[in-house]
Every structure is written in structure tokens, then in C-alpha cells.
């Protein structure tokens, strides 16, 4: 008899946009002094940087196939968004972020449509108001004083504009230790008009 690893019955899911590699590299360069000055912060991996439009939470794996065609259709009906990374800030002195600039009206409209679509697919979740940002690092309680200082170091950062050309459905796994949260694209769809 062969043992098969049991597949999880649920998955943590969110819908997001991802900056292109050159935009992430530009921000990582601006963060270099903070990486060196605050190595004990829990820095997110650059490949995991994203802008969350809707955090749907822990869903049964059977809910994911219901979302796919609806998200694909939504993406196909929308043009790409012109965005940029800008400055830095913090939430509750525990979370360091970079801000978003550009077509914020389009970003808010897209997020509202994603949330409405998820609810129409039967997904219930607590939707916090959208505060467009890209999470960079988290602090343990003993390191909270470092987050505002790291944010101040990003105050003058203005990244080059870029085009968000894909809508991403992302799954996350929570593990232990550094880099404990891992993200993986379940699927991504190009926005209409994307070449």
C-alpha cells in the first residue's frame, strides 16, 4: 500500500497585482540602507511583493475553480493600469510598506469589482477598505521602533511608472521561521489590451 500525502482541503487566497521586476529592483535598491540597518526585521521576499486587491481568506479548495473563469473575464474586460511605487509608511509601527501612485481611481474600481465578483461566486470574506500599498517588512513587538525609521528612509522614493498587465489569483502557505509566508500564483490573466 502506497502512502499518498493528503491534499489540503483549504487554501488561503487573495487577488493581487504584481509590479514588474525592474520596478521591484528599483525599490530594493532604495531599501538597501534599511536592509543593512534593520536586518532583524522580517523582510518579505522580493519575489512575493504584490498589491492586494482582495484578501479572500481560507477557502475550500473547491471554491477556487469557481473564481477562475470570473476573474479571467474581469481581467479581459479591463485595460492595464498605469501605476508606480512611491514613498513609504507604516501601519501600527509593525508593518513597513511602499505606497502606490498612478491610476488610483482605476485601482479602487478594480478592487471593488474583484470583491463583488468573489461574493457573486459565493465567497464570503471580511473586506477591509482598500489602502493601496506593497508590504515590505514586519516587526516583532520588540522591534517596533525600527519600522517608522525605515519608513522615513523611503519618504523621497519615487519609482518609475509601470503597467500592471495581469490580474493574479494567489495562494499563500504559512510556515515557520524566516520567510515563513510563501506565495504562489494559482493563475494570472492578462488585462484586455495587453500585448
Measure the end-to-end span. Answer: 50 Å
CATH fold topology: Cyclic Phosphodiesterase, Chain: A
CATH homologous superfamily placement: Cyclic phosphodiesterase
Strand coverage percent: 25-35%
Radius of gyration based on Cα positions: 18 Å
Count of distinct strands:
9
What is the CATH domain class?
Alpha Beta
Broad structural category? alpha+beta
**pLDDT < 50 stretches:** 175-179
Q: What are the secondary-structure elements, in order, as H or E?
A: EHEEHEEHEHEEE
Number of domains: 1
Helix share of residues?
25-40%
The major sheet is characterized as: 5 strands, antiparallel
Query: What would the average pLDDT be, to the nearest integer?
Result: 89
Strand order of the largest sheet: 2-6-5-4-7
Molecular shape? globular
Task: Return the CATH architecture.
Answer: Alpha-Beta Complex
Count, helices: 4
In short:
By secondary structure, this protein is α+β, with helices and mostly antiparallel strands. The protein has helices spanning 21-37, 64-76, 104-120, 146-152; strands at residues 10-17, 42-43, 51-60, 81-91, 95-102, 133-138, 162-164, 166-174, 181-190. The chain is globular, with a radius of gyration of 18 Å.
Amino acid at each position: 500500500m502506497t502512502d499518498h500525502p493528503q491534499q489540503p482541503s483549504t487554501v488561503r487566497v487573495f487577488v493581487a497585482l504584481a509590479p514588474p521586476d525592474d520596478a521591484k529592483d528599483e525599490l530594493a535598491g532604495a531599501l538597501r540602507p534599511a536592509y543593512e540597518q534593520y536586518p532583524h526585521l522580517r523582510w518579505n521576499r522580493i519575489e512575493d511583493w504584490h498589491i492586494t486587491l482582495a484578501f479572500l481568506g481560507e477557502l475550500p479548495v473547491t471554491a477556487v475553480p469557481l473564481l477562475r473563469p470570473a476573474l479571467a473575464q474581469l481581467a479581459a474586460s479591463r485595460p492595464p493600469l498605469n501605476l508606480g511605487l512611491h514613498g513609504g509608511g507604516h501601519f501600527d509601527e509593525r508593518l513597513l510598506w511602499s505606497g502606490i501612485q498612478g491610476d488610483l481611481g482605476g485601482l479602487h474600481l478594480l478592487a471593488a469589482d474583484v470583491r463583488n465578483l468573489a461574493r457573486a461566486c459565493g465567497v464570503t470574506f471580511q473586506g477591509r477598505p482598500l489602502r493601496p500599498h506593497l508590504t515590505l517588512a514586519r516587526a516583532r513587538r520588540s522591534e517596533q521602533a525600527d519600522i517608522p525609521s525605515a519608513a522615513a528612509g523611503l519618504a523621497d522614493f519615487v519609482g518609475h511608472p509601470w503597467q500592471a498587465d495581469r490580474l493574479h489569483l494567489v495562494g499563500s502557505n504559512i510556515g515557520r521561521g524566516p520567510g515563513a509566508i510563501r506565495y504562489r500564483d494559482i493563475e494570472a490573466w492578462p488585462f484586455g489590451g495587453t500585448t
